[in-house]
Amino acid sequence: MKKIVLLTIAVSGLLIIFVFQKFNYAAWWNGIVPQVVSIESANTVFVVNKTVRLILNDAFCMLLIWSLFENRNYVRVAFFLFLIELFIVLPLYFFFKLWLEGPTEISSPLLSQIHRMVVNPLLMVLLIAGLIYQRSINRFNS
After folding, report:
1. Structural domain of residue 18, as residue ranges?
2. pLDDT tens digits, 3-28
3. What's the domain count of the chain?
4. Taking the model in full, what pTM does it have?
5. C-alpha angle with apex 53: 44 to 5, nearest 5 degrees?
6. How many CA atoms lie less than 13 Å away from 21 in the CB half-sphere?
7. Helices in 85-108 by DSSP H: which ranges?
């Protein structure tokens, strides 16, 4: 029962993030605590919105990995992939995106593919497919 609840939360969370992908997290933050940090420049709003969306997507994907496999090592691999994505791939994406095109939602064909990899949970979905394959190979060999 616990596994089904976790799986439902993970998939529902991913669906909600997808449905509300245009949600402005920066404006929401400004509405709650405007006196702490005011997020107003277009580039900063773009960075905050994409970063929050990446963190939420990958958190729900890690919950999905836990609910599917219940293996700490798999979640650990997902977490390290998330850190690489957050601290290496995402800043590179922001640099090229903001340098070449600015904070628009429409991207060139090359940056569009990178956008899909970074903002959508594509890397985690590929990891889940790889983990399923790895588990099936391990079962076949034993």
Report:
1. 2-141
2. 999 999 999 999 999 899 889 888 88
3. 1
4. 0.85
5. 160
6. 12
7. 90-100
